[in-house]
Amino acid sequence: MSNANAALTIGSLASAAGVGVETIRFYQRRGLLREPARPLAGIRRYHAGDVARVRFIKRSQALGFRLDEIIDLLRLADGAHCDEARTIADDKLRSVREKLVQLQRIERELAALVRACAVAGSEVSCPLIDTLLADAERSAW
Length: 141
Prior knowledge:
Shape: elongated
CATH topology of the domain at 1-61: Multidrug-efflux Transporter Regulator, Chain: A, Domain 2
CATH class of the domain at 1-61: Mainly Alpha
Number of strands: 0
Structural class: mainly alpha
CATH architecture of the domain at 1-61: Orthogonal Bundle
Number of helices: 6
Low-confidence stretches: none
Mean pLDDT: 86
Order of helices and strands: HHHHHH
């Protein structure tokens, strides 16, 4: 491998990709990123393509993909498996939509509790705390 193709140390790879060195090592342990062989000089060198791979991983995480799903997406990245990649993305979209419904329910409940606190003002008993305690007693931890 030529010096131009593999000129990045782990620190320069991490910096170029906007992550820490420990993130690079973590991705290697999880099988998301190859670990280059250690030459006789002792310093591993990474390819410029590894920067794009780390950015792909980070962008996928930002979209909510788990690391095991990202491994699957990377495996399909050759372009010949678009249907499989679409299935993974469809599953993730369905999961995100389910979470949104749950979050909207939580938002409504919390907003009602906040409004109850505003109405109660400085009463000794707080409606928010009272409701949470009552719910906890009903569910019997």
